[in-house]
Specification:
- This protein is of the alpha/beta class and about 160 residues long.
- It has helices at about 10-15, 90-95, 100-110, 135-145; strands spanning about 40-45, 50, 65-70, 80, 115, 120-125, 150-155.
């Protein structure tokens, strides 16, 4: 991942100028729940990863969608269609846990720090210019997580 300081000044300023346009949340939607050791956890990432058999993400940013990743997926079965001049894929290629920490999550379950790993995890394509366009799909995904008994999400923004 490129550092902000390494970007050309115009691009750096463009990113910094977007900060005031990020959504504001007037309420605190967080709720208390069971201890982590009793929670079922799913991963949600914006790494643009998906199963080899899935349709790649629209790298032009026109489509807002997600891909479902089974909890028993093998690293070799995932690919990344996230493409950007500012994005270095070598971390993912060396260790998928950099963007999709499923092995680490399973270790936390093994060590009884986390209750259970969800049956399914989800990946969005990052770098969408208008973040509010995610809301309909985020609501759809929230319902799927709820139906799967997920009560905690590990967010992996990329």
């Amino acid at each position: 991942m490129v550092r902000l300081a390494d970007l050309p000044q115009a691009e750096r300023e463009g990113h910094l100028n977007r900060i005031p346009t990020l959504p504001q949340f007037p309420t605190r939607p967080f709720v208390k729940g069971p201890a982590l050791a009793q929670r079922r956890v799913a991963i949600v990432t914006t790494a643009g990863i998906h199963l080899r058999s899935d349709q790649p993400f629209d790298t032009g940013g026109a489509g807002i969608d997600y891909r479902v990743i089974p909890g028993d997926v093998a690293p070799a079965d995932l690919v990344m269609s996230h493409a950007s001049v500012n994005f270095d894929r070598t971390g993912f290629q060396s260790d998928w846990n950099v963007v999709f920490p499923l092995d680490r999550l399973k270790e936390l379950v093994r060590d009884k720090i986390v209750g259970a790993v969800a049956a399914f995890h989800y990946s969005f394509m990052g770098a969408i210019p208008k973040i509010e366009r995610y809301e309909p799909k985020a609501r759809e995904l929230a319902a799927m997580l709820r139906n799967d008994g997920v009560d905690a999400v590990l967010l992996s923004p990329v």
